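Reproducibility note. Readers wishing to regenerate the assembly model reported in the main text can use the exact inputs given here. Chain order matters: entities are listed in the order in which they were concatenated for prediction.
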Amino acid sequence: MMSANQVQQSDPRTGLPGPVEPDDRPQSRRRRRITADRVGLYGLLIVAALTALFPLLWMVSGSLQSLDELLSGKSLLPKDPHWDNYITAWVQGDLGKYLLNSVGYTLTAVFGILVASSMAGYALARLEFWGKTFFTFVILAVMIIPAPAMFLAQYRLLVDLGLSNSRVGYVLILITSGVPMATLIMRSFFAGQPKDLEEAAALDGASSPRIFASVILPLAKPGLAAVAVIQGLAAWNEYLMALVIFDDNALMPIQRGLTSFNSAETPQQEILLAATAISIVPVIFFYLLAQKHIVKGIGAGAIK
Amino acid sequence: MRRDSTQYPRPIRRRPAGLAVGALTLAASLLVQGCSAGGGSSDYSGPVELTFLNQSRGQEAALNQLAEQYTKEKGIKITVDSPGPTDYLPKLQAKAQSKAMPDIYSSFNATEMAPFYKAGWAMDLSSELQGDWGKNFAPAVIKMSTFAEGNNLGVPAGIYTAHWETQTYGLLVDPAATGIDPKALPKTSAELISKLAAGSKDGHGTFSVAASLTPQLIQGYASNWLTDEEISATFDGKASWKSDGWRKAFQLLVDMKKAGVIANGALPGGQNDNPTVETSFFSKHEVAAVFDASPGVSVGLRTAPDYNSYFSLGLPPAADGKLAPRSPGLPGKGAVVNPKGKHPKEALAFVKWLTEPAQQKVFAEVGRIMPTNPELLAKGDLPPQLAGFGAGVKDMQVLPNTPTSNVNTAIIRDSQSLVLGELTVDQVLDDLQAAQDRK
Amino acid sequence: MGLVFLAPAIVVIGIFTITPFAQAILLSFQTWDGVSPDTPFVGLQNYEFVFKDEAFWASMTNVAVFGVVGFFLGNGIAIAMALAVNKATRGRTFFRTVFYLPGVLSVVVVGLIFSSMFDPRSGVLNRMLDVAGLGSLQQNWLGDPAVALPSVVAVFIWFHWGFGFLLFLAGLQDIPAELYEAAELDGARGWAKFRYITWPQLAPVTTIVSLLTLLAALQVFGTVQVLTNGGPGYHTMVPTLQIYAEAFTNHRYGSAAAMSVLFGGALVLLSLLQLGISARRSRS
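Running the prediction on these inputs yields the following C-alpha cells for the assembly.
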C-alpha cells in the first residue's frame, strides 16, 4: 500500500507502473525532515547506549582475563578467554546458595514494599484524614536525614526482638528501608491520575478499599512496576545490614559472596568481575519482566 | 477528553482476597523459617565451640587450615568468619552492641581497637605472658603490644593481644628499573632521590606511596632527628608537632616532588590506595620504587607470582640526620581473647597454640609474613624480598603511644595537599597541631 | 479510613526507623565511641565543634556542586532519553534495558571499574585519548584536584540517570494518546506538544523525580568513597562521607550525629522548598 506521500511514477520506457518513489513535492518534505529527525534520534540513543554499556563491556572483558593480564591493564580484550573464571566464581563463591537467598529476600521485600507503599501512597494522595501532613513530613524526614548509628541501632532492635541472624529480621529491615521512597513515588503517580473513574465508582457506592483494589491498582501498573524495579535493585544490592545481621553463611545474600573476592591482600579481581557478571543476570531478567508493565499497551488499554 | 466512566476494568475482583491469603502464607512461612534459623543457642554441656572473627584475608587460608588441625587434635570446633578488612570493624561493632561478641577476634591497629579494650572485651594477657608463653615472642613484640599506664588512648594498662606477625615498613625497589644495586645501596636519602630521578623515563616519576601510609613514612623518616621518646611524646600531645624533626620529615615529600620523582605528581588516595600502589609496582611496573609495609610482599606473591626480582630496604638515613632512622614497628596479625565469652579458657588455649613456633611457621610460609618468634626470625631464612623488612626489626620503633585518628587523617590528607603544592610544610604542621589538640 | 491504608507503612517505619532515628538525635548531645556502654551528655559541645570544622563546611560546598550538576545534568539527560525512547519505534526494549544497566551494578564494582578506567597511566580513558590524538587532554582524573570532583560527578551521573529515566518513562506512558492527537489536529508540533501537554502531564512525576534525584545527589556516599574517599586532600569530600569518617574512623558518634542533624535539617528545608516551588508551579 502506498501512503499519501508516495507517488507512483510510470516508467518512461515502457509506460508500465515503475518503482514507488518518495514524493518530492512540498508536502512530502515533512517526511524527509522526519527522516533526518529519525537519524538524529537513533544516533542519540546509540551514543547513550554506548556510554552506558562501555564500562559494562569492559567488566565482561576483564572477567575473562587472568589476574596478571587484568592488573597490567594492557589489553582491552582478553587474549585467551578464561571461561573458567566463571566456574571458579560460582564454586568458590558458593554463588548458587547466595543467589537463591538474594532472590528470596528481594522478592519478598519488594512484595511487602509494594503493598505498604501503594496503600500509603494512595492515602496520602487521595484520602483526607487527621495528621495527613504530619505523616507526609515524617516519611520525608526519615528518608532524608542520615543517621550514622542507624544500622547499629537497628541491629540492636532486631536482637532485642529475637530476630538477629534470621531471614524475617532481614526482610523487615529491607522493607523498612524501601517504604519511604516507594510511598512518595506512588503518591505522585496516584496524584497524577484523573479522578473520573474514582468519582464514578464512589457515586456507585463503592467503598475506599474496593475503589483502591478495582480501580486504582490496575491503572497504577507502570508506577508499581517502576517502584518494583527500583526497590528490587536496592534490596538486591543491600549490603551493610546483611553483613551485620547474618552470622550463618547459609543465610547470606549474594553481595556477601562477592566481597570474598575483593580483598587487598588476596585480590582476585578477575573472579570478582566474573561473579558480578553472574550476579546481575537475575536482576536483568527481573527488569525485563517488570518493564513490560511500563509499556504503553497496558496503560492505554485501561484508558479505553 | 473524558474517559468512558461506566465500566471498571474487570478481572480485579478476586485480587484483594488473593493478596491477603498470599501475604499471610508468605508471612507464616517466613516466621517458621526465621524461628528455626535464629533459635539454636549453644549447650553448656555439649562439645566446646569457639568462634573466631578474622580480619585478614591474607591469613584466611592458613587460619582455616590450622583451625581444622586443632579441631582434629583437641575435638574443639572452631568456626572462622572472615568478613574481610573493610567489613571487619562494622561487624565487630555490631557484635559488641548485641553482646554476641566472638570468642576470639583479630587484633587490628591500636586506635581502632581501643574502644573494645576500654569496654572490657579483651582479656588482659600480662600475667600469662610473664610466664613461659612470653618466651615465645621477641621482647620488642611484647613491648609493642603493651598499653602503658596513662597512654594517650586512655586504655587501662595491660596487654590485650598476642601476635604471630611482625610488621615493619620500608621500600620495595626494582633494581633494573631504578639502577639501584642491592649490593651498593644509596647511603643517604638525597642519593636515593637522585638515583630515582635519573631512572625516570620521559618525565614520569618512578616512586609512589599510598596516602594512607604517609603517617608511617613520616614517622620513620622523622626518627633521623627525633628519639623514640620524642616521637611518642608528640603522639601524646606532650611535645609539639612544630619541631625541626617533623619539619624535615615532611620536607622529604617536598624534595621528592621537586625532583620530579613522585609518579603522576600526586599521592594516590582513596580506600584502595595501597593496593593500587602495589598493583602499580608488582603488576604494571609503572613505578620502580614504593614505600610499603612488610605484608605487601605477600600481596606481590599472590598477584604477580612470576615477578621476584625486587628487593626491600629500609629508608636510607638523611644526610643531616643525628640518629639512625628506625622503621615504625607495628604488631601485625594477632588475636584478642574475649573474657566475657562462654569458654574463655579454651579460647586462650587456642590462641596460645596458634603462636607456637610450629604454627607460626605455617603462617609465615603460607602467608609470606614475618613471624614474632625470636628463633624463627633470627634464623634469617627470609627471602631477599622480605630481607630489608626483616633487617628493620632489630631497632624498630616500639612506642607506648599511637597517633590519634584525627592526627592520622590529617597527615594523610595534608601529605596529599603538600605534594600537590597546596600547603606548605609549616601549614601542615599547624594543622597537625590543631588536630592533636582536639580532644 | 486513610489511617488504615497508611497503617502498614507507618507501623514498619515506626518500629524500625523512628527509634533508631530518635536515638541518633539524642546522640548528637552525647559522646560515644561506638562500643562503650556509657554515653555521657555533653550538651552543645558537638554542635560547637561542627560549626567550626572547616572540613565539614568544605564538604558542604562540594556537595552543593554535586547537587546542582547532578540535578540539572542528570535530570536533563534522563528526561531527554525518556522522550527519545518513547518516540523510537524500533529497539525500545533494548534501549530501555541498556539505559538502566549502569544502575544495576553495586557501587563497589562501579568503583573498581572506573578507578581502573581513570588510571592516569594505564587506564582506558587516557589511552583512548592518546590513540585519538587528543593526548594533551589526558589527566590524572581522580588525583588532580582540578578534575577530581568533575570526574566523580560524571561517574555519579552515569550510575544514576537510569533511575530518573525509568520514572519519567513510566510517567510518559501514562499520558493519554488522545491528548496528543487532539493537539496535532489543532496544528501543534514538537516543542508546543512538549510544553503544553507533556510537561504539565508529567508534573507529579517531575516533582518526585526532582526531589529524589536532588536528594540522591546531595546524599552521595558510595561513589565518592570507592573512587577517592574524599581526596585528594578534601577536594571531593562530601558530608555523608565526613559523617561516616567521624563516626567510624574517629570513634566520635556524638559529633557525627550532630553533623547528621545539621546536614539532614538542611536537606529537609531544601526539600520542602522544592516541593513548595513545584506546588506553586503546578497551580499556575
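We highlight two features of this model. The radius of gyration of chain C is 23 Å. Residues 54-87 of chain C form the longest helix (34 residues).
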